Amino acid sequence: MSTHPDLSVQAHELVARSRRELTQHGLNRTSLARIREDLVALAAHPALRDADTFAMRPGGQGKMYRLHEDDDGGYALYINVCGAGVVSPPHDHTTWAIIAGVEGLEHNTFYDIDDQGRPQTKGHKAIGAGDAIALMPDDVHSIDTRDGERVVCLHFYGLALPSQTERRAFFDESAASRYAPQPEIVSWP
User: Fold this and answer.
1) pLDDT in tens, 128-162
2) What span, in angstroms and rounded, lies between the C-alpha atoms of 66 and 46?
3) Whole-model pTM above 0.85?
4) Cα 103 vs. chain centroid, distance in angstroms?
């Protein structure tokens, strides 16, 4: 049994409310904004700051704890824990994505893709406790954890990470390629 059963219950309730929101109102930025606020509230749960329960991998590389994943690979909620210096290339998710800060700062840079398939920076937001971003399926962003020793965020997707096989990543300014690298994902509890 989980050492924080109320966290599991609250995570499953968030997924159920999110499913109702998207079923009733469809996928749009307004619906995602409502879900984003709900995820920010869950991100304030004190158990998420427990470094013993949610430990990072040695060397600070990312580790994701699965709080929820539909049996068919649908809705998936993860706790992402990593150290400083973790960087992802610009990428999309092919599904909606919401990221809420728990501890530390996760820097997100946003991009438009030009006619030659190259990412062009259009903005930046550092996600910390009490803040979140929401992305549509074709939105492109990159992540880096340049600050602090420990960065913890909730990542919520319409499709589980292993099922996001059509993701695009832009490893340099001249070429796009399929996104293959994934952090270690473990079930919790």
Assistant:
1) 999 999 999 999 999 988 877 899 999 999 999 88
2) 17
3) yes
4) 14
Which residues of 24-150 form beta strands (DSSP E)? Answer: 63-69, 76-82, 97-103, 106-113, 119-127, 132-135, 140-144
State the CB neighbour count (10 A cutoff) for residue 11.
22
Of 94, 108, 109, the closest CA to residue 168 belongs to: 94
* Rounded Cα gap, residues 84 and 89, in angstroms: 16
Q: Are strands 106-113 and 151-157 parallel, antiparallel or unpaired?
A: unpaired
The CA distance from 171 to 95, in Å, is 20
Vertex 70 angle, CA 137 and 58, to 5°: 80
Which are the contacts of 129, defined by CB distance < 8 A and separation ≥ 6? 43, 44, 101, 102, 103
Residue 7 tokens read as 């966290």
Amino acid at 75: Y
Structure tokens at 152: 């913890």
The confidence band for 175, taking pLDDT boundaries of 50, 70 and 90, is very low
Q: What is the DSSP pairing of strand 184-187 with strand 63-69?
A: parallel
Cα separation, 142 vs 73, in Å, equals: 23
pLDDT per residue as tens digits for the range 92-111: 999 999 999 999 999 999 99
